[in-house]
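Please check this:
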Amino acid sequence: MAGFMSESLKSRIQEEMKIAMRAREKERVGTTRLIMSEIKQIEVDQRIELDDSQVIAVLDKMLKQRRDSISQFEKAERDDLVAKERAEVEIIQTFLPAQLTEAEIIDLIRAAVTKTGAESARDMGKVMGVLKPQLQGRADMKAVSGLVKSQLG
């Protein structure tokens, strides 16, 4: 990651796309193009310019879609497609903040449970509401949801 804090995540992705094009890295070009078209689509539809947190939300959504596809392709024993999706996951993750460890996630869950006064699985929405902004792009929310359930269970 470049040392320019002023550089937006979107411009970093565009720059990576150009570098990948020059290096003829087909997978990387394809994935960065997908990311950019997803961002552009939202910007055009909503007539806004996405900031870093909104770009992270887009990347997070793309990761979730790929993870869902991977599990579907694994069930269908389509290893070729699993490999393609995994490669895209790796590229997308390079633009996200560092992933949290399970221990760090559990600490955040405990703090959220305390903060919300959650006592049972009924309070899961409150806990997830506190966690989502902290974990966006830094953890698989489906896995987090499972950890929250076990904490409240």
Notes: Residues 52-75 form the longest helix (24 residues). The mean pLDDT is 92. The chain has two domains: 9-93, 102-152.
